[in-house]
């Protein structure tokens, strides 16, 4: 066991903009204790709506991560966590779901403050997080191996076994939701976790840790280590005691995570990466129904969704009418501002760096000669707010059409035939989401078959349910989260063949 000295990190009392108050843990959560980092370092967590500091949080060192891995390794190998009746893990996950549900107002408010998303959207995220925990509770003892008939003389069966210590790295766009997408199935199948939240959005992960402790998740089973990706993330991807690594973030970092994970000890990996998803609107689409879908596609979460419908393709017969309706709808219905004000649909961009990236892409679009239908500028003097921005009549080789912007910026182009629309949609190295707007069941299903993407939404968009798997093809990554599929990403198959 490492001989390190750990000091307790005290929580801070926070009053949220809607008046709720709570104790925010500020330490690294390791072995069921909130502790200061080895070097005592903390960093400020910013409210992106006001550009003010919410509180300071400990920043893990490599030694802290190693200690977390040791604790997790012990919990996996030296306790009954992995080998007990899985129904017991289900019971704990169920208690965790109940606990989070009883605090849904608070957890949603923390999310809105830390991430900048609107309270209504944050509530939707926490609801999915709760459902994820409930699904995991139900699946814990229901996902099993199978028997295989190979004829007389043999009997064959498989068992599903936990993988072991899992490293999990998540981004800042869905801090609580993505945490449960990863932790819930891992625990259900008997694994233990060390999760690194994005440095800019650690608050709900630490609050969630306090709930894990409260409901009796054993020490070492869930560990949360905020800190920078290049040190904390790399310590996870490179450690040989970690056997499974789940990553969500950019394609660029995802590739380096795959290399590190493979070179260290050939970890099992799942990668949920970037996207540049196409949203196709056919001539027969109902414009009134389509507008909110386009908006959810690209302006939900201020466009900071990996599956955002950031390339809209409209069939020529409806193109002009749709553009005019889209402009009017955005300019009258979609308000941007304070996430705690119910009138607003779109909150703040989560951090300064992303805000600058998006504003730079808007500039690139203008320089490339794309026309602006609406938006194109920031909103207000304080906070990272950007007006919903639509570029139209774009060319396929423009950077704003090819590269992931990850913000409230969309391009619109015209297509003639179904085949041409599908070809434009598929002409991307990414393949995460995709959308189809049509009143024809036949067109919808035909196009769904032709699209190269992990998810196809028809007459809806960015519409998630914890029972439906999510993940990408091509350079959007591999593996699936949610659904029954995710449980298999957290198990090893053992085959037993018996000669009778
Ligand atoms: P990112 O840089 O890929 O970061 C994702 C996570 O990986 C963060 O926790 C980050 O830590 C960590 N990380 C960074 N470098 C690492 C390394 N060398 N080894 C291990 N972990 C490392 O993504 P981002 O900065 O959050 O966003 C940048 C772009 O990623 C966006 O513009 C978007 O294109 C894409 N993105 C995709 C998704 C998605 O859901 N698929 C979500 C968010 C972002 P830090 O705390 O230091 O950031
Ligand atoms: Mg980053």
Give a topology summary.
Layout: E1 12-15, E2 21-24, E3 28-30, E4 33-35, E5 42-47, E6 52-58, H1 62-78, H2 86-102, H3 104-115, H4 119-139, E7 147-148, E8 154-162, E9 165-169, H5 175-188, E10 192-196, H6 203-215, E11 222-224, H7 229-238, E12 242-248, H8 251-265, E13 268-272, E14 278-281, H9 287-298, E15 311-315, H10 319-333, H11 352-367, E16 371-374, E17 378-379, E18 385-386, E19 389-392, H12 399-402, E20 409-415, H13 418-426, E21 434-437, H14 441-450, E22 457-458, E23 477-478, H15 485-488, E24 491-499
Parallel strand pairs: 9-10, 9-12, 10-11, 12-13, 14-15, 14-21, 15-20, 19-20, 21-22
Antiparallel strand pairs: 1-2, 3-4, 5-6, 7-8, 8-24, 13-23, 16-19, 17-18
Helix pairs in contact: 1-7, 2-4, 2-6, 3-4, 4-5
Bound molecules: NADP nicotinamide-adenine-dinucleotide phosphate and magnesium ion.
NADP nicotinamide-adenine-dinucleotide phosphate binds at residues 169-173, 196, 198-199, 228-230, 233-234, 237, 248-250, 253, 256-257, 272-274, 306, 404, 406.
């Amino acid at each position: 066991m490492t001989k390190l000295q750990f000091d307790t990190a005290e929580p801070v009392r926070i009053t949220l903009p809607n008046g709720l108050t709570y104790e925010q843990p500020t330490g690294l959560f390791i072995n069921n204790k909130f502790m200061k980092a080895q070097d005592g370092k903390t960093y400020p967590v910013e409210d992106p709506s006001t550009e003010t500091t919410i509180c300071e949080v400990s920043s893990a060192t490599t030694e802290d991560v190693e200690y977390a891995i040791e604790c997790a390794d012990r919990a996996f190998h030296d306790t009954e966590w992995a080998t007990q009746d899985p129904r017991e893990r289900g019971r704990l996950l169920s208690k965790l779901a109940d606990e989070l549900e009883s605090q849904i107002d608070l957890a949603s408010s923390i999310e809105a403050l830390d991430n900048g998303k609107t309270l209504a959207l944050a509530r939707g995220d926490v609801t999915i997080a709760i459902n994820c925990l409930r699904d995991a509770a139900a699946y814990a003892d229901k996902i099993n191996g199978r028997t295989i008939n190979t004829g007389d003389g043999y009997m064959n069966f498989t068992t599903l076994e936990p993988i072991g210590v899992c490293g999990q790295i998540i981004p800042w766009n869905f801090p609580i939701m993505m945490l449960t997408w990863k932790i819930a199935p891992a625990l259900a199948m008997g694994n233990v976790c060390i999760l690194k939240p994005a440095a800019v959005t650690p608050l709900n992960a630490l609050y969630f840790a306090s709930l894990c402790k409260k409901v009796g998740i054993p020490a070492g089973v869930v560990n949360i280590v905020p800190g920078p990706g290049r040190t904390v993330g790399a310590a996870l991807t490179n450690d040989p005691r970690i056997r499974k690594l789940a990553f969500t973030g950019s394609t660029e970092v995802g590739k380096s995570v795959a290399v590190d994970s493979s070179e260290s000890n050939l970890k099992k990996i799942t990668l949920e990466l970037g996207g540049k998803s196409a949203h196709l609107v056919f001539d027969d689409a109902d414009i009134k129904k389509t507008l909110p879908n386009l908006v959810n596609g690209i302006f939900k979460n201020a466009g900071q969704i990996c599956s955002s419908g950031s390339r809209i393709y409209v069939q020529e017969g409806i193109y002009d009418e749709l553009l005019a309706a889209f402009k009017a709808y955005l300019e009258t219905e979609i308000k941007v501002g304070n996430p705690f004000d119910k009138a607003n649909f779109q909150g703040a961009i989560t951090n300064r760096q992303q805000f600058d990236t998006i504003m730079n892409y808007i500039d690139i679009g203008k320089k490339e000669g794309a026309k602006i239908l609406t938006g194109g500028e920031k909103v207000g003097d304080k906070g990272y707010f950007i007006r919903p921005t639509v570029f139209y009549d774009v060319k396929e080789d423009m950077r704003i059409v090819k590269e992931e912007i990850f913000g409230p910026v969309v391009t619109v182009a015209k297509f003639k035939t179904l085949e041409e629309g599908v070809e434009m949609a598929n002409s991307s190295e990414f393949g995460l989401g995709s959308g189809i707007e049509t009143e024809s069941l036949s067109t919808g299903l035909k196009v769904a078959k032709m699209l190269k993407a992990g998810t196809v939404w028809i007459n809806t968009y960015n519409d998630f349910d914890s029972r439906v798997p999510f993940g990408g093809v091509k350079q959007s990554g591999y593996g699936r989260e949610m659904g029954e599929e995710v449980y298999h990403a957290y198990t090893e198959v053992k085959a037993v063949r018996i000669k009778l």
